[in-house]
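tool=predict chain=A
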Amino acid sequence: MEKTPLDKAKNKGKKFNMYLYVLGLIQHYNEKSYWRMREEVINPNSKKSTLIRLWYLFRIKRSDAFNNASMGTNLNSGAQFDSVPYLPHHLNGIIISHYAKFGKNCTIYQQVTVAQNDYTNKAATIGDNVVIGAGAKIIGEVTIGDNVKIGANAVVVKDIPANCTAVGVPARIIPHNTEE
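tool=predict ok
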């Protein structure tokens, strides 16, 4: 039976170990470490030294850059998440303003943008259990209620009440039918 290239590399010992070491260095998104480091970076009352926090910020920004993303992370400030969001496609192209606020159990698909207005430092406030579809854009100081679903490629520029779905450009609101 012929050996695969991976089997051949394993037999080379030091070279394979170096290969694994380099792969470990360029692993760009590990959910647990990313969000743990992010919490230390944005917390102005963190007990970690400034040097450690800057190292964490560097690692977060490197991960963001590799994934063409920005989770609104800055030293002593940043987008607020009540719980770690579910990212089915990891950080792929997600851009979030430093001023955005997210509730618990949010799901954010790839290529989502949550942006602020041009001249104000205010961005969206997003409720609990919100699903934001691929390519959706949320622009300005809008409030999105709990249990809202935002469709793929929707452009949200107005408030969305709780228990609704928003689809289209600009987003059209469709209330959930709760009378059953």
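The helical segments are 5-11, 14-25, 31-42, 50-66. The radius of gyration is 20 Å.
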